[in-house]
Amino acid sequence: MNTIQILITDDDIEIAELIKIYLTNEGYQVLIAGNGREAMEVIAKEDVQLMILDVMMPEMDGLEVVRAVRAQYGIPILMLSAKAEDMDKIMGLTTGADDYMVKPFNALELIARVKSLLRRSNYLNTQLHAAQEQDIIQIHPLKISKKSHTVTVEDRGINLTSTEFDILYFLASHAGQVFSAEAIFEAVWKDKFLDSTNTVMVHISKLRDKLDSELGGVKLIQTVWGVGYKIDS
């Protein structure tokens, strides 16, 4: 039986209970929080392995919750919103969410997204226990540690989300090779590419901003126009 715990955070209790039914039928253990502050308390006490989070909530909205979670935890976050505009999706992803769905949503798609995020999280956790000699990647002054999930420049840590780290590690571990947005998505998200170019671009843009700032303007991630992205060794 599945022992994965998923936390649903939504002030609309009817939607939260409906999602709980979907997930419970798949064998997951489900917790519900009615607001962001309650969600942070639950995460501190329970072994939550994935979070489904509404954007529009009173007191502490979804974006604030994502920032608070990302400051302490690396769990996958799936955001839900009644807003379908691209800017709202971009805000959610750049804040640190791993995926974004618009309400009303299809139950089967929600389950598929949850399974995809959990698959990727499980794969990465497995990879973190790989052989020691594969742990450190050094590119220029940048040191990437898969084991500790850290990125440093001259002993200064760079605060990346789990998705940003995954993209950086993937490109760095294949230095010199060019990868399309489709290839990056399938390698990092561990799922089939379904027109997710914008998702990849948003994460890479945010990752670049952080890296360029720490590397004094050096452009580590290169764009090969019409082809994809690469990191030179």
TrEMBL record:
Organism: Paenibacillus taihuensis
GO molecular function, one term: transcription cis-regulatory region binding
Keyword Signal applies: no
CC annotations in GO: cytosol; protein-DNA complex
Residues in OmpR/PhoB-type domain copies: 134-233
Compartment annotation: Cytoplasm
Cross-referenced PANTHER family: REGULATOR OF RPOS (PTHR48111), STAGE 0 SPORULATION PROTEIN A HOMOLOG (PTHR48111:SF10)
Domain of life: Bacteria
Domain Response regulatory, chain residue ranges per copy: 5-118
Gene3D superfamilies, sorted: 3.40.50.2300, 6.10.250.690, Winged helix-like DNA-binding domain superfamily/Winged helix DNA-binding domain
InterPro entries: CheY-like_superfamily, OmpR/PhoB-type_DNA-bd, Sig_transdc_resp-reg_C-effctor, Sig_transdc_resp-reg_receiver, WalR-like, WH-like_DNA-bd_sf
Coiled-coil positions: none
Keywords for this protein: DNA-binding, Phosphoprotein, Transcription, Transcription regulation, Two-component regulatory system
Modification 4-aspartylphosphate occurs at: 54
Phylogenetic classification of the source organism: Bacteria, Bacillati, Bacillota, Bacilli, Bacillales
Name of this chain's protein: DNA-binding response OmpR family regulator
Record has Protease as a keyword: no
GO biological process: regulation of DNA-templated transcription
SMART domains registered for this protein in UniProt: REC (SM00448), Trans_reg_C (SM00862)
Residues within the DNA-binding region(s): 134-233
